Amino acid sequence: MKHTISVLVENRFGVLARVAGLFSGRGFNIESLTVAETEDAAVSRMTIVTRGEDRIIEQINKQLNKLIDVIKVVDVTAEEHVERELLLVKLNAEEKNRAEILRMVEIFRGKIVDVSAKSYTVEISGGDRKIEAFIEMVRPLGMQEMARSGKIALPRGTGASAPKAKKPKSGG
Amino acid sequence: MKLKGAQIVVESLIAEGVDTIFGFPGGAVLPLYDALYGAKLKHILVRHEQGAAHMADGYARATGRCGVALVTSGPGATNTVTGIATAYMDSIPMVILTGQVPVGLIGNDAFQEADIVGITRPCTKHSYLVRDVNDLARTIKEAFYIATTGKPGPVLIDLPKDVLNAAAEFEYPKTVSLRSYNPTVEGHPAQVKRAFEAMKQAKQPVLYIGGGMILANASAELAKFAKKTRMPVTTTLMAMGAYPTRDDLFLGMLGMHGTYAANMAMHECDVMVCLGARFDDRVTGRLDAFAKNCTVIHVDIDPTSISKNVTAHIPVVADLLDVMKKLNALAEKDAIDWDDKHRPWLTRLEEWKSLYPLRYGKSETGIIKPQFVVEQAWEAAKGRDPIWTTEVGQAQMWAAQFLQFDGPRTFLSSGGLGTMGYGLPAAIGAQAAFPGRLVVNIAGDGSIQMNIQEMITAVQYSLPVKTVILNNGVLGMVHQWQELFHGKRYSSSEFQMNPDFVKLAEAYGAVGMRITKEADVRPALEEAYRINKPVLMDFVVEKEEKVFPMVPAGGTVKEMMLL
Ligand SMILES: Cc1ncc(C[n+]2csc(CCOP(=O)(O)OP(=O)(O)O)c2C)c(N)n1
């Protein structure tokens, strides 16, 4: 099953390599990984989309927690959360296509962010189903290039994954 | 007071209570070597950086303190990788200081530059590249803290040369604050209670002990608990010495080359109490046939170990010392008659023990049996408070099977990685910590040649380690597998030539002995133990001898080969 894991890490040199290395070294699957600073400049948030049986996902969670620079790991899949991905796509904007592109952009609440004689570049954000659906719709029009950001996610509600929280002192 | 980075390193090590470090100099660490000149810190100059890492490791295993190795950048650092990986796999607390090219040159393919932090990332618990001399003392404090707490492991600190030359105000921090690192120490009382209740319900329990018991310094509590509850004990290779091997509750080592009684106990138990072990494949064999009909209790400081290979019905994440104390407190209050409850089970185990003890055939050709040498090495060591180290292969397994242990930290062996070349430097590290004790390395003729250059280190520092080579002229363990599983096609496992080990020992300034007759085995060992110098004993032993019992890799106890 697909899981979205949100990881708060110390914003230090080498952390990304450690996390990525953990996945490659142990043969865990990685579908997308995004990382950037949070409201606290000393902390970064990684959003990792991965796939695996429960046993593997449990190992991924534990192994991430074990890294010294990892502050908190939340598997947001089962929790209420908001997730978004950004898509930029450059479409063939021949005369006969333009109206259709504009219609699609309107329906999907996207934006045209660049225009040239032969192309429109469109920006869309949303959950992965919306992104997939949009790609599906515009593919026949002729895509020149596209870039996806990978998913970012936040649990709903207040401070559910705030960095202050620590791992449990005792466990079992 | 302002100090140079190099002096800060030395003062920080002293503040950590470090008395001995193992190392080898080079350009990048020259400032540090300069600061060591005349410092109150013993530095042992090795002959190969791998030796330095294994020595620090042996020192750590024998003492329970953190081992320290110091090497230069580039090739110096890369030479330690096998030693670091060895320590990582066995969770040994160690700090490795590596030199690095100046900060401004990093990434430029400078002379003797290697991305050692990158190279060792998968085999260190954590690592640092110090870019600012002001971070130096805090980094060292953190490194020792991380290496020695929670599940211990090696921590690497990469030190650019200009950082060692820069100056900063020195004050060694008293505390460490790492918001992202809080190892769980205390066992959840309710969960420990649950575990104890399950043990009380058991008719056929077994205590399966791993190296974690030794790392947690919990052996005394284990002995108390086993004696009180009359539960039989089996240990992994890593836990040899965690429980007295001559006690009547001890079943011997378990796993691939474990005893019949230990493996059958694991197979037939109704409650398996795994304390500080991780269900390694050398222990479990075929997973789908392992621990099928029992309740599994698993106590480990490392949450990732729990339910990784075998699902734990009752998991406890905690330091074993804490859990063993809690278990003893529960056992103390309880009125159950354990001996009565376990009598039929213990009787059955006794039967297995007497029917299928560890044994080996008598020599027919007059050629010495390697197991005999190991037995005699132990007999002759009585009263000398010995520490044993091993290389890897058949010799290692015979050492685990035929030596006896009374206490922890007396058997140092590369379990997780299985590193040939570990034993001699580890022995030197242990001897540096305990100059008065007898330290013996049980070696094969293959393994000993992987770090034999350290013999001169032992001689130079008057560290009188003893080396017992069980010389079968072949890579014995490889040979054994080829005989059993590859139709006796001995591809590249027979040395056509070996050096003259006696002359080699003498060349290093050690004492060399060659022993070819059974009658000479014991006298040679006794003489070697009396000599206050490094001694290398070359025992010419039976080439065809195999390690039994053996559960083939990926097999089950049903497939155990006995002799
Ligand atoms: C560094 C390293 N290389 C290769 C191996 C694979 N290996 C395991 S046991 C063994 C044979 C060891 O031979 P020897 O040291 O002569 O000991 P014996 O088995 O004969 O007692 C080998 C090659 C290893 N464990 N470590």
Order of H and E elements of chain A: EHEEHEEHEEHEE
Number of strands of chain A: 9
Q: Largest beta sheet of chain A, briefly?
A: 5 strands, antiparallel
Query: What percentage of amino acids of chain A are in beta strands?
Result: 35-45%
Residues in helices of chain A, as a percent range: 25-40%
Please compute the radius of gyration of chain B using only Cα atoms.
Answer: 24 Å
Give the ligands present: thiamine diphosphate
Largest interface: A-B, 27 and 31 residues
Distance between the termini of chain A: 25 Å
User: What's the main sheet of chain B like?
Assistant: 6 strands, parallel
Which structural class is indicated by helix and strand composition of chain A?
A: alpha+beta
Averaged pLDDT of chain B: 97
Principal-axes shape call of chain B: globular
Using the CA coordinates, give the radius of gyration of chain A: 19 Å
Summarize the structure.
The complex is a heterodimer of chains A (172) and B (563). By secondary structure, chain A is α+β, with helices and mostly antiparallel strands.
Question: Secondary-structure blueprint of this entry?
Answer:
The complex is a heterodimer of chains A (172) and B (563).
Chain A: E1 2-10, H1 15-25, E2 32-37, E3 43-51, H2 54-66, E4 70-75, E5 81-92, H3 95-107, E6 111-115, E7 119-126, H4 128-138, E8 143-148, E9 152-155
Chain B: E1 2-4, H1 5-15, E2 20-24, H2 30-36, E3 42-45, H3 49-63, E4 67-71, H4 75-78, H5 81-89, E5 94-100, H6 116-119, E6 126-129, H7 136-148, E7 154-160, H8 161-165, E8 167-169, H9 189-201, E9 205-209, H10 212-215, H11 219-229, E10 233-235, E11 250-253, H12 260-268, E12 271-275, H13 281-284, E13 295-300, E14 314-317, H14 320-333, H15 338-355, H16 370-381, E15 387-390, H17 394-402, E16 411-412, H18 423-433, E17 439-444, H19 455-460, E18 466-471, H20 476-485, H21 501-507, E19 511-515, H22 518-530, E20 535-540
Parallel strand pairs in B: 2-3, 2-4, 4-5, 5-7, 6-7, 9-10, 9-12, 10-11, 12-13, 13-14, 15-16, 15-17, 17-18, 18-20, 19-20
Antiparallel strand pairs in B: 1-8
Helix pairs in contact in B: 1-2, 1-7, 3-5, 3-18, 9-14, 11-14, 12-15, 16-17, 16-22
The structure holds thiamine diphosphate.
